[in-house]
Amino acid sequence: MKEKLCILTLLFMGVLLGSCENDDFNYQSNFEKSYKVWLSFKSTSGNSYSYKVTQASVFGPASETTITVNDGKVTERHFKYTSTVGMINVPSDVLEWAENENGIGLHTYGAAALTLDQIYDKARSEWLIKRENAKVYLETNNNGLISSCGYQEDGCMDDCFIGIHISDIKPL
């Protein structure tokens, strides 16, 4: 009898803890599906790929940053403005630049030099957690891989999205 009570107690605690975890995480099922697709892509690509992050402002400027990853390590970051509306007298070296493996992170703007492993970690630990007064987003339009993930606080009108928009992911 004691053994059955212990088993039932452990089972109940497992269900309770599991349900608490799910309550703090938006889109868990969709995220887990996408994560499995990521693991498969990572394996078939040899963890070598590129992806393009798009950023845009309601005030006009827009950009894209292409991140290249070889064997799980960021080896290149290429940035360019795709719209310069509202920008005045911008030097050409600001409009477009590239960083190689030894200079990753020299520029302070453009998408961060993250691997997709790091992006999936941020999605799980930061972007998809439930928040008071915020709308959370997850889209997987890159053949099942993350295409948009993040959140926006309620009431914010302009450029408030915290997360990432990925328009393209390709194996190398």
What can you tell me about this protein's structure?
It is a single chain. With 172 residues, the chain is an alpha+beta fold. It has one domain. The protein is 32% helix and 32% strand. The chain has four helices and seven strands; from the N terminus they run ααβββαβαβββ. The protein has helices spanning 2-23, 28-44, 92-95, 116-127, and strands at 49-56, 62-70, 73-83, 96-100, 134-139, 148-153, 162-171. The protein has a seven-stranded antiparallel beta sheet. The longest helix is centred in the N-terminal third of the chain and has 22 residues, at 2-23. The radius of gyration is 20 Å and the shape is flat.
Our measurement of the CA-to-CA distance between the termini, rounded to an integer number of angstroms, reads 60 Å
**Beta-strand residue percentage:** 25-35%
Uncertain spans:
4-22
The chain-level mean pLDDT equals: 87
- Shape by Cα distribution: flat
The major sheet is characterized as: 7 strands, antiparallel
Helix content class: 25-40%
Order of helices and strands: HHEEEHEHEEE
Strand numbers in spatial order across the main sheet: 4-3-2-1-7-6-5
Structural class: alpha+beta
Q: Please state the CA-atom Rg, rounded to the nearest Å.
A: 20 Å
The tally of helices reads: 4
Q: Strand tally, please?
A: 7
